[in-house]
Amino acid sequence: MTALAPETFHEQLMSRRYEPSVAAVNELCDSLQEAKPGTVVPYVDPMHDVEECRIISLFSNIGEADPSGFITAGDQDAATRMLGLQWKLGLRPEFVMPWNVHPWHIPGEVNGKFTPDQIQAGLKPLLKFLALVPRASVIVAHGTEANRLANLLLKTEVPLLWRRGLKTYKVRSLSGRAFAGSPARQEEYLEDMRAAYADAMARTGIAKP
User: Fold this and answer.
1) Is beta strand 138-142 parallel, antiparallel or unpaired with respect to 96-100?
2) What is the end-to-end Cα distance of the chain in Å, rounded?
3) pLDDT score of 157 more than 80
4) CA 117 to CA 124: how far, in whole Å?
5) Rounded to whole angstroms, how far apart are CA atoms 194 and 177?
6) What is the pLDDT of residue 145?
7) Which domain of life is it from (predicted)?
């Protein structure tokens, strides 16, 4: 009798995408994907938590969808930088949650630079997402597209925003040309991000370990 192959880490992660900690957000991802046939909408990793989330990391997802099927900070270098930043700050995953400016990807294609209409199209999904994370009151917007969507968001007159006193921080993307430069310059970029997240943690009552 042939033994069954062990479930891969990716399969385990996908099988957990409707756990209570992220079910509502990932069901929103499903509905967004169904609304645009032929696209994929990456999920939020189940290590995050809709009830505990205080900070949103808003990514300018101009590249391809990650093969994992989940939202990432960008390429592998970007993901490594993000994890290192959170580790140094002691920012646990349940207190932060990622989201993409334009939730949709076309499989196998690079999104490329978003048009104003594409950024505008991301506003309604972002508002729906924010409604699902009731304690989130800070957005850290990574990159030009994320900064533009954050500006659009702040111009809306949605009561949810002023009830929470929503604050946005605008920082660089974690990869691509926006992160180009000498090691010293890149360290400056990371320090700006650390300062933004540290201030966001203090603002939202997340204690450093």
Assistant:
1) unpaired
2) 50
3) yes
4) 12
5) 20
6) 95
7) Bacteria
Angle at 66 between CA 89 and CA 112, to 5 degrees: 100
Non-local (6+) Cβ contacts of 46 within 8 A are: 13, 16, 17, 19, 21, 22
Structure tokens at 171: 């920082």
Residue count of the chain: 209
Query: What is the per-residue pLDDT for 3?
Result: 43
Distance, CA of 53 to CA of 91 (rounded, Å): 11
Which two structure tokens, joined as six digits, stand for 100? 């993409």
Q: Band of the pLDDT at 2, cuts 50, 70, 90?
A: very low
What's the pLDDT band for 9 if we cut at 50, 70, 90? confident
User: Would you call 37 exposed, middle or buried from its count of C-beta atoms within 10 A (0-12, 13-18, 19+)?
Assistant: exposed
